[in-house]
Amino acid sequence: MQILQQLGWLFLKSVPSIILFLLFYWFLSTNFFRPLQRALAERNARISKARAEAEAVQAAAKDKVHTYEDALRKARAGVFAEQEAARQTALEERTRVLREARNAAQKQVHTEKERIHREFEAARGQLEGQSAELAGRIAQIILDRPAAPAGGVR
């Protein structure tokens, strides 16, 4: 029984310490921990909000980058299309100029062939006309000339 009395006495002596402990806990809780928890909650809310804003800004930046890349890709495709069109136009112009030059050269060759043929026919006609005259002259020269002795030197 003495142990129970001692325990009871100890309990009575510890009541003020327990009350002081509870008062100290309540004081720290109301004046220190709650404001600290509010500040931490507010900080976490701001961090979450800032992260969400950063993610939104990052997503917007990615969208802008994609938009820029698409515009750049389209511009490059447009430039390549223009270059291809210009190259095609230049090739067509070169083909046209070559065709015209070839046609002009063929026409000139044909014209020259006709001129040469006409000159040839004119020369042939002239030679045929002169051949009869030359044959007559040759015959006359041969007939008018005295005969050379056989075995003589000419």
Q: Short summary of the structure?
A:
The chain is an all-alpha fold and 154 residues long. It has one helix at residues 2-144.
Description:
- This protein has 154 residues and is an all-alpha fold.
- Helices cover 93% and strands 0% of the residues.
- The chain has one helix and no strands.
- The protein has one helix at 2-144.
- The longest helix is centred in the middle third of the chain and has 143 residues, at 2-144.
- The termini are far apart.
- The model has no long low-confidence stretch (mean pLDDT 90).
Protein topology:
Layout: H1 2-144
Name its key features.
mainly alpha, 154 residues, single chain
Mean pLDDT: 90
Describe the largest sheet: none
Order of helices and strands: H
Q: Give the beta-strand count.
A: 0
Secondary structure: helix percent = over 70%
Distance between the termini: 188 Å
Strand content bin = under 5%
Large-scale geometry: rod-shaped
Please count the helical segments.
1
Poorly predicted sequence stretches spanning 5 or more consecutive residues:
none
Instruction: Give Rg in angstroms.
Output: 63 Å
Class from helix and strand fractions: mainly alpha
